[in-house]
Amino acid sequence: MTTTTADPFANHPGTEYPFSVSDIARAATLRLGDDWACESWPWGVGAYVEHLKAGSFCVGIDDEGDLGVRLDESKVKPEFYAGSAADGLDACAEWLADAIRRLIAAAVTFA
Fold first, then answer.
1. Which terminus of the chain has a lower count of CB atoms within 10 Å, N or C?
2. DSSP letter string, 38-81
């Protein structure tokens, strides 16, 4: 009698989630313009999107699994993405770039 066990890692790397949080942040940085930079966290689980004048934005996943962004050292409420990775890299990056623009505007009016 032959027994087989299910492979717990049946998905090949990159097939369950074809892009990381840092990929989203880097794609958003391109949409924001030349003066923006992105620094990925280890393993691609988050990133800082940075601008010399606008500040540093922390991009990551919260305890509930939601993609979010906040302006570092700010009392402005963070923003969270209502979609999912299934929306695709372009949609996630576009949301992130727009969210960063909204956070900048909120920080200016909050100050």
1. N
2. EEEPGGGS-EEEEETTTEEEEEEE-TTS-EEEEETT--SPPEE-
